[in-house]
Amino acid sequence: MARFEDKVAIVSGGADGMGAACVRQLAAEGATVFALDVKAQTAHELAAELSAQGGCVTALEADVLDEEQFRSALQSAIAVAGRVDVLINIAGGSAAGMVADVDLAVWDRLYRLNVRSTLVACQEVLPAMRRQQKGSIVTMASISGLRGDPGWAAYNSAKASIISLTQSLAWEEGLNGIRVNAICPGPVASQRMLATLPPEAFAKYDQACAIGRMGRAEELAEAILFLASDQASFITGASLVADGGLTARTSQPTEFDDVRAEIFARRARGQ
Fold first, then answer.
1. Which residues, listed in sequence order, are joined to residue 215 by a DSSP beta bridge?
2. Scanning 25, 79, 116, 213, which has the fewest C-beta atoms within 10 Å of its C-beta?
3. Domain of 72?
């Protein structure tokens, strides 16, 4: 099914992880795709691979913390393609820190990396989408934007800001035919996590999810592209939670957790 045939899509943070998964699927479904990322070599390698397979993918170097460079890259993509139908904001980042002593420079950087970059990207695509009277924007929020986590206030509040921005923009642009939605992922297995977390941390994330495992980048891409596609034509201002059931639980740990722990132990033993 070619949901994005003859459509132009821009993916910020499109070189790897969820961004690359979105780029791959968009290209497979007929879109002209621009993969923007500060990791220029990785983005170019992805574009070359997909272009060799018949896709239409262009890599653009863009550091979202460099606002002038980021705006220029977005403008270049729109000028080359002549239109833009889909914007997917994947670029972002996280940082830990208690509220009482969080470094304000870290706080400000995190807001620039997540919230300000999302605002900038939306500002750049809106004129073209208004002219077309149609467009779809998907922002990268998180289940962390739906609740508080001790030691992660900057990240939590930045993602909550993205959800609020998404809702406001959906109302502002709805009559222009532009839909705006947020994706709220839970834990997703990625190369970054593999490189930074010990195996026991992965086990805890797996057990925290109702389905017994973390998500995969390709699964999140499917949810993102659903929101971006005309299949979601009556959905705007929404925050789609894709977390394997992690936030579905409200109760405190019970004896049932011992049963689940035994199931995981048996799996580890190959039983």
1. 188
2. 79
3. 8-268
Written as one string, the DSSP assignment of 184-195 is EE--B--HHHHH
Taking CA atoms, 255 is separated from 184, 207, 251, 258, 261, in Å, by: 29, 14, 12, 5, 10
Distance CA 44, CA 58 (A): 8
61 φ/ψ angles, rounded to the nearest 5 degrees: -80, 130
Name the catalytic one among 155, 215, 225, 244.
155
- Helix ranges (DSSP H) in the chain: 17-28, 40-52, 67-81, 104-111, 117-132, 153-173, 191-196, 199-208, 217-228, 255-268
What CATH number should be reported for the domain holding residue 161? Answer: 3.40.50.720
* Domain-located, residue 41: yes
Q: How much is the pLDDT for 256? A: 61
pLDDT tens per residue, range 49-75 = 999 999 999 999 999 999 999 999 999
Residue 134 lies in a domain: yes
How buried is 93 (Cβ within 10 angstroms: 0-12 exposed, 13-18 middle, 19+ buried)? Answer: middle
* DSSP SS3 for 37: strand
Residue recorded with tokens 């959905």 = 235
Q: Is 155 a catalytic residue?
A: yes
Whole-structure pTM over 0.85, yes or no?
A: yes
Q: Is residue 3 part of a domain?
A: no
Q: Evaluate if residue 254 carries a pLDDT over 70.
A: no
Q: Say how many domains are in the chain.
A: 1
Give the torsion sign (CA, 29, 31, 32, 36). Answer: negative
